[in-house]
Every structure is written in structure tokens, then in C-alpha cells.
Design a protein that fits this description.
130 residues; alpha/beta; DhaM; four-stranded parallel beta sheet; 6 helices
Length: 130
């Protein structure tokens, strides 16, 4: 099953996004919080993200959702640290973090492929709110 990593500058925000998204899950999936820094500050940490990727990997791939620009840079750096085999199975979604995570969790929990999970997350950009 595809794993998901949530990278926010806030550990608490990432956890709440995960909690909310898991309400939509149809089965148990690995959704790992890689928000904030190890010492509890706001920010992102490539090593923390790399560890989260490794924890969430189930050989079907890992999708990373990010909140702001520097989170993308940290996620890309984390991917660079991975071994070549895992690196091939990790994607970063260009998606809104809340709606994208809900969509990704829903798709991953029914056994969708990594590309399908990424596409679902990215399609969340198009959801109208009114």
C-alpha cells in the first residue's frame, strides 16, 4: 500500500491534517508526520523527512505532501539522501496539503497505485468550495 508523508512547518498542523484525513481511510495505511524540526521549532528537516519516508515505505511507494516552498526543498533533499531503489518510489505532490492529503489517504487506503494517489491529491486543487 502507498505510504504518505505530511511535511508542514508545524508538527501540530501536520498531525491534525493526518488525524482529519484518516477519518476518510478505508483501511490502515502508513501516514507519517514529518512536520516541524526535531527540537520542536517551526520549520522543516530533511533528515526527519527521510526517516518518515523510510517508515512509510511499503514497497508500493511514498507520496509526500508539503505546505510551503521550503518544505519542497527539504523533501527534495531528503529524497536525495535515499538509496536508489527507494528514491524511484517517492513522489512529491503539487497539491493543497489538507484537501490533497484527504484525497491521497482515500485513494491509498483502497489500494491505488502511487501515480493514482498522486493524481488524486493533485486533483484536489480543482475542488470548488462553493
Amino acid at each position: 500500500m502507498v505510504g504518505i508523508v505530511v511535511v508542514s512547518h508545524s508538527k501540530n498542523l501536520a498531525q491534525e491534517i493526518i488525524n482529519f484525513s484518516m477519518e476518510m481511510a478505508q483501511s490502515d495505511i502508513k501516514v507519517i508526520n514529518a512536520g516541524g524540526t526535531d527540537d520542536g521549532r517551526f520549520g522543516t528537516d530533511a533528515t526527519k523527512i527521510m526517516d518518515a519516508i523510510q517508515q512509510s515505505d511499503d514497497k508500493d511507494g511514498v507520496l509526500i505532501l508539503v505546505d510551503l516552498g521550503s518544505a519542497i526543498m527539504s523533501a527534495e533533499m531528503a529524497i536525495d539522501f535515499l538509496d536508489e531503489d527507494l528514491k524511484k518510489r517517492v513522489l512529491i505532490a503539487d497539491a493543497p496539503i489538507v484537501e490533497g492529503c484527504i484525497s491521497a489517504v482515500s485513494q491509498a487506503s483502497i489500494g491505488a497505485s502511487l501515480e493514482e494517489v498522486k493524481n488524486a491529491a493533485e486533483q484536489a486543487r480543482n475542488y470548488s468550495k462553493k
